Amino acid sequence: MRDRKYYWDIGVQCVAELETEQGILASAKDEAYGCIFGRDSLITCLKLLRVSQKTGMDNFLPLIRKVLFTLMQLQGKEENIESGEQPGKCIHEFRPTAHEHLTKNGEHPWYVYPDNSMRNYDSVDATPLFLIGAYRYWQITGDREFLKRMLPAVEAALQWIMEFGDTNRDGLIDYTFPANRRYGGLVIQNWMDSMESALLSKEQISYPIAPVEVQAYTFLALRLWSGFYGRSSPQKEVVFGQFALRLKKRFNEVFILPDIEGKYSLAYQVDGQGRVFSEARSSMGHCLWASLTKEQDGVLEGILEQEQISFIVERLLRPDLFEPQAGIRTLSTQSSHFNPNSYHNGTIWPHDNGMIAEGFEIYGYKKEAQMVQNAVLEAIAYFGTPIELFVYQNKNDGYQEYRSVHGQCSCKKQAWSAATILDMVSSQPEFVAVR
User: Fold this and answer.
1) What is the phi/psi pair of residue 417, to 5°?
2) For the chain, what is the domain count?
3) What CATH number is associated with residue 364?
4) How confident is the model over 340-366, as pLDDT tens digits?
5) pLDDT tens readout for residues 313-323
6) Ramachandran region of residue 271, left (φ > 0), alpha (ψ -120 to 50) or beta?
7) Domain interval for residue 28
8) Most CB within 10 Å of its CB: which of 44, 67, 135, 425?
9) Does the residue 431 lie in any domain?
């Protein structure tokens, strides 16, 4: 592994290169995702907030503030079936220009707004992540002017969860793709948003779909803001708090998969027919990440019950998911759908691993977190850049860049990868930030 300064420098440089007047691009301008993405921006910000806390540096705070205000301005105002916009919903993808590859080409071009911008809202997780990001920024900075400006957007996002988050009223947060939409968009709407990640053909998909990690994000968002309103609006505290508890109860009824040894794993999604998809994915680790912490919130709590935590940690570190030289795969090698060069069915994503490692740390599994961090940093050193994702088949073949059969390849500069690198190196013992 390279020295800490090496990782720190490439992370800081990448964040600086991707920063814009409106926030931060998901990838470099000349790469596939050189625009604002809600989910990517928010995970980037949450990682940078953690870096600020651990290092005592405030360098990233103006960027985080800017990102949150931009997402507030782009927040959904009305219902538009063609773009997925709904009141209070956080945007998925914003392209004011250079969107013709999505909006002019293909069988189902994406919707363009009257101002000629492409705004797409096909994301089920960006809204709870927006709520987490806004709360954590205010919690860490105590910025009252930020809170005053942000609070109407927070309340709109909370209302979106209550009104639109559970489309079939089965107690889980889900998404659907409207059958009567004329324009294109995302058929799969959580972070593993490729069609291949569904492990089904389009004809086999049964909406609505409730992804595992989204339940955890939503639980945390509701618990954080329920606590906030306890100081000013007891009624809101009760409404959001009870919703969170019902979600946790329902989650543990549906997503927990006990095995014959009395251990636990997690399903990665539940569909509209009540089918539980049991293949082991890295996403289960996000349920550890999305937790209240003793240090910040005075209590350690997530959507999982405490007795399940050790089993989830152990499951993520089994050889079918964890590669000690590379990190945790998106899909178990035991799955019939596994492919080491598949975008979401076997590749390794630095940001995904960073969230899992943080979850391990939150619950006291520091050695395990270090194992994951070291594995990812080894890969980053090989590529020499905050790469989006990569392929690792085995020790003999080593690291490879992802490249699809259609020619899509890994973005070399990815914002949430850069923020993850900074978080990982600032988690190392005796780390001193390079100012």
Assistant:
1) -70, -45
2) 1
3) 1.50.10.10
4) 999 999 999 999 999 999 999 999 999
5) 999 999 999 99
6) beta
7) 4-426
8) 44
9) no
